[in-house]
Amino acid sequence: MSRETHSADTIGHVFARKAKTWLKEEVMVATAYVERTSDGAYDGIAPDAAWRDEVLELARKQDAVILAHNYQLPEIQDIAHHTGDSLALSRIAAASDASTIVFCGVHFMAETAKILAPHKTVLIPDERAGCSLADSITGEQLRAWKAEHPGAVVVSYVNTTAEVKAETDICCTSSNAVDVVRSIPADREVLFLPDQFLGAHVKRETGRDNLHIWAGECHVHAGINGPELAERAAANPDADLFIHPECGCATSALYLAGEGTVPAEKVKILSTGDMITAARRTSAKSVLVATEIGMLHQLRRAAPEIDFRAVNDRASCRYMKMITPAALLRCLREGKDEVFVDLETAKRAQGAVQRMIEIGQPGGGE
């Protein structure tokens, strides 16, 4: 598996040449030159009408569909053809008639799209956009863990690299992780990875003693803590609580409900996709949201009459925010950065994803 961007290969030259030709033919006015800052970020482009027109026209000319994750910058979410969680977007990528997928998210998400649509060109606007959770376990580490527990069933959260998925028996999402683990015979050991907080949620729900949990975490979700949640809940007693199971505060939320500090019906442990559904159904006037702050944009669009507030206003993923307006424009102008997954790895990883789908409806992705 390679993350290299083949800047000198044929694909890059073709995209660049076509983009220049189309710009001349359509007499399109470029919004500006894309700049690279000292830390490597793509900048220098304002997300104005000219930017929007050029992005959409280039996407049309290049037969590309733009997908944006719920944690992306609002201007990226708004220009995308589709917005959602990573698994839902990967399914769209596989089903789309477009020959090119522009995935505005982090690298493992673009890899998953490539796994499900191996014949398509998959681009990510900035290949540096990694994921602390996906990077918390490598294929080599998983193989060593499996050797310590021969015969164990490996259940991997969809937020993992293609290499890790290829070593996995069944993938899961945050909304179906409990069902996936329950589908495994009770006498089989289970290795659950990589998120320790989602693993704790699954163990709590299943009561399974032979569930071993990898000590990985999303640095953003882990930073949303219990005391912070308790303080915000006390200050907003009428608010619903939408808690992502990757959060460090998920256990605290359930504790508050168990103690009667917060009514149990107000505490909802939800994937990002399920948060949108819950937002449309709740009768609450306000909701406290424990996940990456980019999610607030989609929630406010889904239910503009509700006051959605972040439990932690600083819960912003710097990797997600690497996909800037300039990065997206550069991606479409130059055909960079392309995502590659070798066919054997993709085939093995696809099997783990397919088994997840066969067990039950995965619902929201992460």
From TrEMBL:
It holds the Pfam family NadA. Gene3D superfamilies: NadA-like (3.40.50.10800). Pathway: Cofactor biosynthesis; NAD(+) biosynthesis; quinolinate from iminoaspartate: step 1/1. SUPFAM superfamilies: NadA-like. Its cofactor is [4Fe-4S] cluster. GO terms for biological process: 'de novo' NAD+ biosynthetic process from L-aspartate. Its EC number is 2.5.1.72. One of its GO terms (cellular component) is cytosol. Keywords: 4Fe-4S, Cytoplasm, Iron, Iron-sulfur, Metal-binding, Pyridine nucleotide biosynthesis, Transferase. One of its GO terms (molecular function) is 4 iron, 4 sulfur cluster binding. This is Quinolinate synthase. It comes from Saccharothrix variisporea.
